[in-house]
Amino acid sequence: MGLCRAKVTQFLGAKQYSKAPDGGWGWVVAVAFFLVEMFTYGIIKSFGIFLQDMMEEFGETNSRVSWIISICVFIMAFNSPLSSVMMNHFGFQFVVMIGGLLISTGTIATSFTSSLNQIYITYGVVTGLGYSLTFLPTVTILSKYFSRRRSLVTALASTGESLAMSALAPGESKRI
């Protein structure tokens, strides 16, 4: 009887959170967020470089090729609640690793596609789901490491998107 009561009162009390350390390992987490930001939104926003080449390769219109990124961003945003539930149930690291696996699988599978409809699935759906599973946990975990300097760290880590757009876009346009 006493054992049951101890379990019930444990769940009825207020949650105790440890104080954020404002630094330490948090800076490594911030660098990881910078890289995730760089390789999610940076790549999504640099995708326009490939638009003309993909139109020629598949003989499709601009609007049909543009659906690739539209589907990807929709899947990324629509599955944010799923990412949040998974993050609470399985933890940050597992969800981010699954997201990275989906991004890798979707990107590699896209290189073997022969039609635009296949790219809608491989890049739009699979990679978009991977982006959703990596982006939200990395944004959320910063709050566990920073409280006083959270806005500064988030702002610095969010510059990954801009850096990727300014570095990847010229580099990829020269490769094409």
Automatic annotation (TrEMBL):
Secreted recorded as keyword: no
Positions of the Major facilitator superfamily (MFS) profile domain: 26-176
Example of a GO MF term: monocarboxylic acid transmembrane transporter activity
GO cellular component annotations of the record: membrane
Transmembrane segments: 25-44, 64-82, 94-114, 120-142
Protein location: Membrane
Membrane topology: Multi-pass membrane protein
Protein name from the UniProt record: Major facilitator superfamily (MFS) profile domain-containing protein
Gene source species: Xiphophorus couchianus
